[in-house]
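Q: What would this chain look like folded?
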Amino acid sequence: MIRVRPAFALLVFAFAGCDDARPAQNDPWRKGAAPVTTATAPPSPNPVTPADQTTGLTDQGYLPTKPRPAIDGSPFLVPDPLPPQAHAIACDIAPPAPQPGVVVRTLCGKGTEPGQLGYPRAIAAARDGSAYYVVDKQGRITKLDSELHVRAVVTTPEIDRGRPTGLYVAKSGELWVADTHYARVLVYSPDLKLLRSWGVPGAEPGAFLFLRDAKELGDSGEILCADYGDDVARVEVFTAEGKFSRQFGKFGVKPGEFQRPMKVAVDLEHKELWIADSVNHRLQIVDFDGNPKKVIGGLGDEPGKLKYPYDVVLDKEGRAWVAEFGNHRIQVFDREGNSLAVWGKAGRGEGEIGYPWGICLMPWKDGGQHVLVIDSGNDRLFELDGKALLAGRRS
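A: My prediction, written as structure tokens:
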């Protein structure tokens, strides 16, 4: 069985959010109030219908579900039949009422019941704002509707090797899950029914080491995947059927090189990709072929600098919203790389945040951009009023 652990990750183990890392006891994030929790509802007695036993299309590059061990170059196949926890549970848990200010709502809280989270690590939104999905370190995917009611919860089929760290909602409405430690993409229906999976482990082109992100390259049908491990750091491109096309990037510190590329944001208007180059503490802007165009950030905690950027999304005004794991904050940049606003500081209290892994856009409200932010260290989500955040500029 393949057991790949990136050498450089050992150097940043305590700081860069490795799957087994927890914050140090003296970290400022630990100080302050306990996490906010919300009321929960018992699981529904009527689970969502589980996925069919045959979920693959082998002639199109997808994998069947018959289990077998992963050896060098062979895939981790989804168990067939699915285990009970991989069947979605329906629920309806209402969010708190919105409040004025930058923090509109604080959602979820620590726990194992529906509507609670255990160290959330990725978030994604449907394009029309009809659904939001969060995955935590327990391998649980939580679905929220457009009004932020929790509607369903499911656990990925296998978690012994590790849990997913990436989510994306495709144009079709399917949820794509970067099942990082199983070197595959799990594809779910909007109601969290597992449909299929694809991907194989390995360092060769077209395989995955530690897959962090998988998303569409506009309407071309191509799929971008951010992957890293050992001395590998790359963005791979696949056809819509999951067949390898090409890749760019390598391990390093120069423009066009990466260390632990975590997320990719697509700018169709300018034909550019914004890559969260986390261990290099920067954003890289490259064209669709991977040619470097601009570097933003560099290690630091002052505005304009970055420390372990883990996620980046682009709004319709061309602004980049960045979740900084290492600086415990959200930072907003314009296209030229100027810092427009910074929000957040380490802690557990109101307006404080710990180790944010992700951010996603919500529909505009009251003339401004709203965002959902993962407060990973406090096991919760924030709905932020982007207009108020930008007006405050520094907090």
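Residues 267 and 385 are 23 Å apart (CA to CA).
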